[in-house]
Amino acid sequence: MYGKAFAPEYRGALGELSVNSSLEEVLARAVEQRRRAELAGSALESAHAGLAVAESARRLGRVTEAKEAWKASYRAARRAGDEGAMAWAVWSGGTLARQRGALPLARRLLTLAAGLAERGGDVVARGYSLAGLAETGRIQGDYRAVAELHEKLLAEARKRGEARHTVWALEGIAQMHRNTGDHDRALEMFEEAARIAEGADDARGHAWALRGMADVLSLRGGTDRALALLSRAETTCREMKLAGALAYNHKMRGNVLFRAGRYEEARDVYAGALEEFRAMSEPRGAALAALGLVKARARLGRDLAETAAELEELRGRLGGLGLLHARDMVDKACAELGVVPGPAGSEG
Predict the structure, then answer these.
(1) Which domain, by its residues, includes 260?
(2) 312: CATH
(3) Where, in residue numbers, are the TPR repeats (predicted)?
């Protein structure tokens, strides 16, 4: 039995905030609470408020503000001598690094956060930090290294009845099944994640689960249902102002339209998603949206030599982000489009 989802990153005086609180509201309240804490000379409360500033700013796509906030939160937590609060701040920094495509930095920060949490006796912070490490490895495509950690974290979350973490773990494992071709298992796990998230009133987790379901259904030809699920998820993303989740929702809509042969619509959606990712300095999402855009333009008659050159540039860009499967992604696109790999269609 799962309880209601909660947001452990909202701490101290902000602990009453819901996981579904508007991010604009969270940011405004956190900035004010941080000001009050600083005036009162409370380093720990300043650290808590700074964490909420960092996380709300990150999810709104305000990366500079998020970076400054997590570092300030860490400094305040260190002044307070609270390793648990230090762990939460560094976790936020590692999560931001992953969002910005700096995967080696994300791994370093999240490893540090897990150690701080363990020393500070904060079980939840340790779990979130390990989950961040698992997600970073999954994004890189290193499934063999992180599959066991995902399963372990899922078992722990189920045992504690912690809905939000259970949903996260289910979605991560489902994504790995989807990427390795086990679509039945992937859909089953995305559906379970959606049910748990909905029951626990975890709107963000529910939106991501719907996106995963849409992806798998689209692969099976269920275009209309996939688009309907994405529209439901988009409503949540807009209501909560989840900039990153909304951009990934739009990229997935582009994928669904592309698979259905609706290339002009796909091109326009990919282009919009690309601008959204660029606006929030999210290089991984931008590269993936650009890959979709190149494919859609190719289907609409773009010159093959230009397409080959663009794909080769994307191969380097994706590989530079530490994505282990970058070459496979681009090679698959080349094969799909009948393009010879290499600059301008050469073998170089």
Answers:
(1) 242-348
(2) 1.10.3450
(3) 167-200
| Residue at a domain's end among 108, 140, 172 | 140
List per-residue pLDDT tens for the chain, 348 residues long. 677 888 899 999 999 999 999 899 999 999 999 999 999 999 999 999 999 999 999 999 899 999 999 999 999 999 999 999 999 999 999 999 999 889 999 999 999 999 999 999 999 999 999 999 999 998 888 888 888 989 998 998 899 888 998 999 999 999 999 999 999 999 999 999 999 999 999 999 999 999 999 999 999 999 999 999 999 999 999 998 889 999 999 999 999 999 999 999 999 999 999 999 999 888 999 999 999 999 999 999 999 999 999 999 998 888 888 887 777 888 899 999 988 765 544 433
C-beta contacts of 172-178 below 8 A and 24+ residues apart: 172/134, 172/135, 172/138, 173/147, 174/212, 175/138, 175/212, 176/138, 176/143, 176/147, 176/150, 178/212, 178/215, 178/216
The number of domains in the chain is: 2
Closest CA to 109 of 128, 123, 124, 122: 128
